[in-house]
Amino acid sequence: MKVSDLIEQLNLEVISGEKGLDREVTGAYVSDLLSDVMGNARESQMWITLQVHQNVMAIASLKDLAAVILVKGLRPHESTIRHSNDEQIPILSTTDSTFEISGKLFELLKKEGCLA
Amino acid sequence: MNLEFEIAGGDFTKAGYASSQVKKMLKQLGVEAHCIKNIVIALYEAEVNVVAHAYEGQILVHIESDKITTKIIDKGPGIPDIEQAMQEGYSTASKKVREMGFGAGMGLPNIKKNTDKLQIQSKVDEGTTVEMVNYF
Ligand SMILES: Nc1ncnc2c1ncn2[C@@H]1O[C@H](COP(=O)(O)OP(=O)(O)OP(=O)(O)O)[C@@H](O)[C@H]1O
Ligand SMILES: [Mg+2]
C-alpha cells in the first residue's frame, strides 16, 4: 500500500510533502518520544504522533519513514512543513485521537496484508 | 577515509543535520544498508546529546575496509557519572526539552544497542568524547 492509498480510506488531510505520496507503507509506529522512535521505528513505517516541531522530520528522514500522521487536528510548525517538502516525506493530519487512528490504520494494513 | 562535521550546541533546529550529512556520504560510499541504519541511530543520538547537553561538538568519521569508527567530541559540562547516564530512563533534560519529546533517557542506551564497541570519556566542566565502532 502507498501513502496515497491511506489518505482516502482514513480521511487524512495532506499538509505537505506531496511528492512523497507514492512511498510504500509497511506498518506504523506510535510514540511521542523521539529517542523511542529513533531506536525502534523501521523504514517505510508511518509515524503517528502529536509532536509538531521540525525534529520530527529530521527523524522521519533519517529513518526513511513513509509519512507522519499528526493527531487531534494538530498543525505542524512552518519549519516542519518546509523540512517535509524538502525531504519529500508527507505530513498528514487527522482529527482522530491517537487511539482511533492507530486502530483504523492497523485494521486497514492488516486487511490489505501490508504489515511487515 | 575521513569525514568531519561540526555540531552547534543548543540549537535544536539543526539537530540531526550532521547525521543526515554522514548518512548521505555513507550511502554514496556504498556502505551496507543495515550498517548505515545502526550508525545513523547511534550518531543521531550522540549529535542530539551535544545539542541538548553541551556547547559545541565535532563528528569525526574514519572508514576502513572492515569497520567505521565514529567519534563525537564536545565541549560542555561533561557527565559526572557515566554508568548512571547509561541507564535507560535517566535524564537531566529540562521540562521544555522533554515537552519536545527529547529527554526520555533512551539516547545513550540506543547508542549502546547500535554499535559494536562503545567508549565514553568525560571530564566535568570540560566535555565528553563518545567513540563508537561498527563492523561491516
Ligand atoms: N554530551 C553530553 N554532555 C553532557 N551530558 C550528557 C551528554 N550526553 C549525555 N549526557 C547526560 O546523560 C543523560 C542521559 O543521556 P541520554 O541520551 O540517554 O538521554 P537524554 O538525552 O536525557 O534523553 P533522550 O536521549 O532520550 O532524548 C543526559 O540527560 C545528560 O545528563
Ligand atoms: Mg540523548
TrEMBL record, chain A:
<dbReference type="InterPro" id="IPR010766">
    <property type="entry name" value="DRTGG"/>
</dbReference>
<comment type="subunit">
    <text>Homohexamer.</text>
</comment>
<dbReference type="InterPro" id="IPR028979">
    <property type="entry name" value="Ser_kin/Pase_Hpr-like_N_sf"/>
</dbReference>
<protein>
    <submittedName>
        <fullName>DRTGG domain-containing protein</fullName>
    </submittedName>
</protein>
<dbReference type="Pfam" id="PF07085">
    <property type="entry name" value="DRTGG"/>
</dbReference>
<feature type="domain" description="DRTGG">
    <location>
        <begin position="5"/>
        <end position="105"/>
    </location>
</feature>
From TrEMBL, chain B:
<keyword id="KW-0418">Kinase</keyword>
<dbReference type="GO" id="GO:0016301">
    <property type="term" value="F:kinase activity"/>
</dbReference>
<dbReference type="InterPro" id="IPR003594">
    <property type="entry name" value="HATPase_dom"/>
</dbReference>
<dbReference type="Pfam" id="PF13581">
    <property type="entry name" value="HATPase_c_2"/>
</dbReference>
<feature type="domain" description="Histidine kinase/HSP90-like ATPase">
    <location>
        <begin position="19"/>
        <end position="133"/>
    </location>
</feature>
<dbReference type="InterPro" id="IPR036890">
    <property type="entry name" value="HATPase_C_sf"/>
</dbReference>
<protein>
    <submittedName>
        <fullName>Anti-sigma regulatory factor (Ser/Thr protein kinase)</fullName>
    </submittedName>
</protein>
<keyword id="KW-0808">Transferase</keyword>
